[in-house]
Write a structure and sequence with these properties.
This protein is 5% helix and 40% strand. With 487 residues, it is mainly β. Strands 2, 28, 29, 30, 31 and 32 form a six-stranded antiparallel beta sheet that branches. It is globular, with a radius of gyration of 21 Å. The chain starts with 20 loop residues before the first strand and ends in a 5-residue tail after the last helix. The structure holds fe (ii) ion.
């Protein structure tokens, strides 16, 4: 192809930008709180070339890493491509060589065996290193100062898994990194690798186990003593891929499963639970222990949120017809059987954020995004074709809500959380807000929001003089950590 398809994945807010840029001293409306010092890294999929197939979608976009750098009230912005093996091969050829999303059988023969990952999902900071991650490959290390790509990361040759999740977890007390990789030894493999790296970034353990079926596994959770692997019935099939078909198809009649094991134990101790048929979830707010009871706070829907994954499974449901909720799943490990308790915590939504210090521990509050049920229609865009227009702060103990409803024509991306040193202060949220200013024209701002009073609106708005393509996930790295970056 010589042009981008005129679909939701390549128009409007999803229009490819393809521009590496640096802008110093962004214009700031209001005042940046002085304790916000550091970098907000964002993962932005942005295809460098028109795709080989016109039904391609945003998840295939080449990963770009963007950075808002906060320096004594000033904000600088940079965005660069992650120079993956795939990006390098296509840049050399000046065209797309990789075919359908996660289907190597549709690639140009010249790139057979080349790493297909686009590293476009989540920036990760651990042990003084910055990575860009996507679940179909290993992480790519990026220099946090120059944003130069430093290559694929295998923990100094120690990692056996061919993949690493975009949703690892860091224990806030021990500094250990917990992660997994599914399809650990190749396309459509059921092998899952479960890895632990110590606080210095050394891989200290890697164990493998098989999942019950060939499901997509996007997120997982840790508590102080357990690792939790939720698996949903969006499945893959090697024969379908060989025939040029889609990587994922949602199976509405298949039940979801949850594996729970001792966090530092052996995978042979995994215990499997079984939940609702057809359920789907991508993101987990948090999980924690209460003795032998394990709580998992998760955003669940009654079918897959991605239209193309539903359609591949023969499910005809509009985006607005999907029902979901923010739920607490409780697993009582003293009881036999495979069932668990489910109770609602809050309205549906996604893209949750907690204080990093609360990971795996009992916690009081968190934040997430939703579509305002009483508000204007959401802007088309983002990975599922529909953006969010409301930010929620939830008190999980009391199910209390505070919300920031955006005006018509606005969309908000996943926030990051910046802790505050002030006693009793919830800290700050940083989130990009896009605003439609013309038929196909959008203006973007970075909003700084008091995390304890989201309904009060932003305390500062940072104007970005460039179009910003939709972000997937982001991460905050304080200045005190950036100075410890490993070379
Ligand atoms: Fe995600």
């Amino acid at each position: 192809m010589t042009a981008f398809p005129q679909t939701i994945h390549f128009t409007g807010l999803n229009t490819p930008v393809r521009t590496e840029a640096s802008v110093r001293n962004l214009l700031v409306e209001g005042e940046i709180p002085s304790e916000i010092e550091g970098a907000f890294f964002r993962a932005v999929p942005d295809p460098a070339h028109p795709p080989m197939f016109d039904d391609d979608h945003i998840l295939s976009g080449d990963g770009m890493i963007a950075r808002f750098k906060f320096d004594h009230g000033a904000v600088d912005y940079d965005i660069r491509y992650v120079e993956t093996a795939r990006y390098a091969a296509e840049r050399e050829a000046r065209r797309a060589l990789f075919g359908q999303y996660r289907n190597p059988f549709t690639d140009d023969p010249s790139v057979a065996g080349v790493d297909r990952t686009v590293a476009n999902t989540t920036p990760l900071w651990h042990a003084g290193r910055l990575f860009m991650t996507k679940e179909d490959g290993r992480a790519y290390r990026v220099d946090p100062t120059t944003l130069d790509t430093l290559g694929a990361w295998d923990f100094g040759g120690a990692l056996k898994s061919e993949t690493m999740t975009a949703h690892s977890r860091i224990d806030p007390e021990t500094g250990e990194l917990f992660f997994f990789g599914y399809e650990a030894d190749g396309e459509c493999s059921r092998a899952i690798a479960y890895g632990i790296a110590d606080r210095d970034g050394n891989l200290v353990r890697e164990q493998w186990f098989d999942q019950p079926y060939g499901g997509m596994i996007h997120d997982f959770a840790i508590t102080k003593s357990r690792a939790i692997f939720p698996i949903f019935p969006t499945t893959t099939d090697l024969e379908r891929l060989r025939a040029g078909g889609p990587k994922w198809a949602h199976e509405q009649d298949l039940t979801c499963r949850v594996g729970i094991m001792p966090r530092d134990g052996d995978v042979t101790a995994m215990r499997w639970f079984e939940g609702a048929a057809g359920a789907s979830a991508f993101h987990i707010m948090n999980a924690f222990d209460e003795g032998d009871r394990v709580h998992l706070d998760i955003f669940v829907s009654d079918t897959n949120a991605f239209p193309f994954m539903r359609e591949a499974g023969g499910i005809q449901r509009g985006q607005q017809e999907i029902r979901g909720a923010f739920e607490r799943w409780t697993f009582d490990l003293t009881k036999d059987g495979s069932s668990y308790e489910v109770r609602p915590l809050g309205p549906p939504g996604d893209m949750p954020r907690i204080r990093d210090a609360d990971t795996g521990l009992p916690y009081s509050f968190g934040w997430y995004l939703t579509v305002n049920p009483n508000g204007p229609p959401p802007l088309p865009g983002g990975p599922v074709g529909m953006t969010f227009n409301m930010l929620i702060r939830i008190d999980v103990a009391h199910c209390g809500l505070d919300a920031l409803a955006l005006p018509p024509g606005h969309a908000i991306s996943e926030p990051v959380h910046v802790p505050s040193a002030a006693p009793g202060h919830d800290g700050w949220l940083l989130a990009v807000v896009d605003r439609q200013v013309g038929d196909q024209a959008f203006a973007s701002q970075l909003w700084v929001i008091n995390a304890g009073a989201v309904g009060a609106g932003p305390v500062a708005k940072v104007h970005v003089p460039l179009p910003l393509r939709a972000q997937v996930h982001g991460t905050w790295v304080p200045a005190t950590q950036l100075v410890l970056a490993k070379t």
